[in-house]
Amino acid sequence: MLKSRQSRKFTEKYLSFVQCAVGVFLVAGFGAHMIMAQHAKKQDNINAKVIIARQKEVIASLTSSSLAMEQVRESARQAELDLLDTLAAAQKKLEANNKIYQPEQSTSTVRTTAVVKTLRSVWGAYKKHAMGADELDSLSNKPVNWDSANKQMVTLVDSLDTLYITGCHDEFNEAVDYLANHFNFNPSENIALFETTIRVLGGLLSAYALSGDARILSKAVQVGNSMIPAYSKEVLSKQGGVPHQYWNPKTHKSNKGFGPLLAESGSVQLEYRYLSHLTGNHTYDTDAMRVFEVFRRDTRNGLLGNKFDGKHFTGTVSTGAFSDSYYEYLLKLHLLTGQNEGVYKDMYIEAAEGIINHLVKKVGNTTQSYIKQGYIVQSKANITTPVMSKNFEHLSCFVPGMLALGSQYLNDSDMAKKHLQAAESIAEFCVHLYLDTATGLSPDVVSMRSGKKNVVKGNYGLRPETIESLFYLWRVTRKEVYREWGWKIYQSIERNCKVCPACEMSGYSEVADVKAAKPRHTGHMDTFFTGETLKYLYLLFTDDSALDLDCWVLNTEAHPFPKFMPLYNPGGTEPTPLPEKCSNPLSPY
Predict the structure, then answer these.
(1) Is residue 324 flagged as an active site residue?
(2) Model's pTM, two decimal places?
(3) Is 293 known to be catalytic?
(4) Which of 209, 247, 273, 506 is least buried, going by the fewest C-beta atoms within 10 A?
């Protein structure tokens, strides 16, 4: 780290020297320009063309200097990234020479420091330009809000637990104070139930679980109370048993939007179960779980179509958009209550087997696999023979992490091995979505034709799914390759997504085309960049104690909830207690 600081000081001095030199040159250039102008007035016999030519020379020199300065800044930025790589390699070599095996510390100090620096850069830009807004437009440095009538402070709330876990406690405390004084969840317009639940309610619950600050829990209850009527028996009975996409807390009216959608109706249960656990109010849990009656009825080979037509879930069968987190929550509902509710484990196993057996396809003679999409022509169709599409979405790159985590809780060792092998094969495909582009960033959607990836949507929106899977695979397998791949992705984000590389505080941006040698920024910085992407990078490089997966479950927005005993015992047997290390002092039970 001493060498790192010295190198950074050298870089800063070098930049300072160049800046001074350019400054002197600029002053001299402009001075020369003024002298020439005065001389021209006195000397009538000087040809005007000569004056113009000299002026052009000065302007060209100034332009050249500006470009040179930009090149110096970019070189310094690249030198810093290269230095971090060198330090990490030196640390690994030192450990090998001393024959010390330190899996929790291997390269972690350098890399976690880098990730925290990125987080502080983003948070500083958000605080300066958009504090309290839902998002920051990272190009214009202007605030953006989802709802014109009610700010949900989505970036702030989504970032809380990341700030806490990474040790940015001053920033966390400042954010909580701001939240306590300014957050008032009282929407007068339609709100997106799924997004608000996983980001806002989930972020508040997680921040409370980590810090124990009662002010945060009171805000979570406020949010939960506004949305839970959308899941009531009275409302769902008019909608075929499935919640709609949007809800107006003021009018108590729902709106279908693009749905109802599988992922959105099946990925809010973790949040409401934990809220019930904290408050003792079982209405949250009971109402949110009601839709599972429809899931159990419509499932075929563990899989469901991604849209509800009023009677059945039909349409596309995939692990991508509109479907993804439903499958994730089957596993995590089982884990959240200490593996004591086997019905969700059974549903998860059937779904995971359905994905592997019917949707996963090997890529030629490689060790990579991708996940196809199917389409149910009729709601009762057999999912073993759907119409298939060869499109693959980056969203599906969460699946390797889900399969890897789930493999640790399967009683069948052969099945566990099968699931882990599938996880590693799909993860390799996802990583190569990054490695195979000019920017080192993944396109959003590709199509597989003759074993080759063809870009369908070439943007990269700071997505977390591949990094999420690398985190889980590292925790399960301890294979160093997953950390190395994660580091490569992080470096690509740093090189291509930071809007102002030379600035201490800067937003990061979606890249419009990952194939372009010099990517174009759109200015969109989704809240999941701090909520998920940077959190998973930090957890990938740090040691397990930062978040023990024996004791915590992360929701689909990477907000961790502590495991707890079930609210009731549906199996009628004595529940298995949680490990002693997982006792949670914040739980009222």
Answers:
(1) yes
(2) 0.82
(3) no
(4) 506
